[in-house]
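[Archive record]
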Amino acid sequence: MDIEDLKRKLAYINCYTKEINIMEVCGTHTMSIGKNGIRDLLSPNINLLSGPGCPVCVTPDHYIDYIYDLALNKECIIATYGDMIRVPGSTRSISLEKAKAFGADVRMVYSSMDAVRLARQNHGKKVVFLGIGFETTTPATAIAIKEAEKSQIHNFYVLSMHKRIEPVMRALLEDKDLRIDAFLCPGHVAVIIGEDGFKFLEEYNCVSAIAGFETEEIIDGLYFIVKDLISGGRCIKNAYGTLVSKEGNNAAKEIIGEVFESRYDYWRGLGMIESSGYKLKASFKDHDIEALYPVNNDNVNKKDIGCRCGEVLKGKIKPEACILFGKTCTPESPVGPCMVSGEGSCAARFRYGSY
């Protein structure tokens, strides 16, 4: 890290005197900004907002209820990444952790291929892998589905909760209650979809920069954003050129397109967004758990448990504005998903205290 260069860029950023809202839509950015105290390095007029970039946080509560039912009543083995285990459903009594306590078979896995192996070892059981994440993790789920198809592993299923980044960013920009001046675009997603995957932001005259996750990489992204705000430039800037190309990873995009199609999907706190979800194509329906047990979307957002994660995810409020924050909602006893996930805004605020 070149400290003098970092100081120079910070001085330039902080010379900007207008109030601006810059939103990141990546959970890794959220945690890095909190952990490294980046907000404390910026002038008060430069407001960093944490958007819906944590895939665990945006999983709607009725999907958690559905998974809970699969685990307890459909006798499925649930294969999941660790963060999903403690996410609450429509009530605090519903989670995979609670289901496991009642005897459900819930297994933590480290990759989608671990779930395929689990299905191979348990022929008499339906193994349901919880596919979660944006474009970054979707290719790995697609590979697992293709492997199960090739190996004729008929008891391997996927619940695809994978999300697309473009539709949600469009929804945020089109929300008249929000004011977003610029986006700090997620480096991980950009590795897959490339610079071109964010060119749609130019339609909104929105300043944006793709950034990595170290302190100096985030400062670089903010530096490019402020330069564009001053100069009037509106082209996507790539501050993560070491890993992000213009076109992205064509092989990864190809396998996503082979296995998945874009359909409407639900986001916790944001509701239904058109074309925002990756769902299995009909040619792979034998591995689609929703084809076997359809999700009941009539129960969307029916419960009001006082959690304001939806407003936090939109950047409308800061975590501490929720009356539950740090009181009845803590990492040990979470009410909402933003306090559960290692990438959640509330968890970052609770852990690092800088927001």
The chain has one domain: 17-26+45-305. The chain is about 35% helix and 15% strand.
